[in-house]
Each structure stands twice: as structure tokens, then as C-alpha cells.
Specification:
The protein has about 110 residues and is mainly α. The chain contains five helices and no strands. α1 runs antiparallel to α3, α3 packs antiparallel against α4 and α4 packs antiparallel against α5. The chain is elongated.
Length: about 110
């Protein structure tokens, strides 16, 4: 894997996980499976489209990469969003942002 591919996936992740995540998804995924799943699906669609292009058109590779990565994204957000929701409610902003950093580290 080249540095360009790694950086490309970091940018793709940033777009799918931040730019395209709606306010409802961001605030709802810590308490609702619906919003968490919608966010993970939106993330996975973007990842699939870009992954298909990166995998030189190999649909098998793109599908498996998307299924594994999307499932891991869902599971990570299931855990971290619930922790971050509690930290934000307790006004523990430093701990909240530290958990956000851990969340992103796991995603990468």
C-alpha cells in the first residue's frame, strides 16, 4: 500500500465520518441504533465507492473491505459515542475530546 493510498483513505474517512455526518447522526448515534446504523451505512457507501476505485475495479475486494470496515466503524461508534455522550453531559470536555481522539485512532 502506497502513501498516496493511505492518505487517500484518511481523506475519504474524514469526508464520510465528519462532512457527511448530519447533526442528527452525530447527536443521535449515542442513544439510537437507527442513527448509528444510518451513519455507518452512509460512511460505508462512500467508502465502497472510493474503495472500488482504489481497488482497480475489483468488486469482490471492494465489497469485503467495505463490509469489514463498515462493521468495525459501527462497533467502534457504538462504544465510543455512548461514552462521549456521558462525558459531554457531565461537562468533562477534555475527556470528551480525548475519547474523540481515541475513536479516530481506532477508525484509522
Amino acid at each position: 500500500m502506497t502513501l498516496a493510498i493511505i492518505l487517500g483513505f484518511i481523506v475519504i474517512h474524514w469526508i464520510a465520518d465528519f462532512w457527511l455526518q448530519t447533526q442528527e447522526m452525530a447527536t443521535g448515534k449515542g442513544k439510537s441504533i437507527k442513527w448509528l446504523t444510518l451513519h455507518a451505512l452512509e460512511y460505508s457507501v462512500v467508502l465502497f465507492l472510493c474503495g472500488f476505485w482504489y481497488s482497480t475495479g475489483n468488486p469482490f475486494l471492494a465489497v469485503w473491505f467495505t463490509l469489514i470496515n463498515g462493521s468495525c466503524h459501527w462497533l467502534t461508534d457504538f462504544c465510543t459515542s455512548r461514552i462521549m455522550k456521558k462525558l459531554w453531559a457531565a461537562k468533562k470536555e477534555r475527556a470528551f475530546f480525548m475519547m474523540l481522539g481515541i475513536d479516530q485512532l481506532i477508525h484509522y
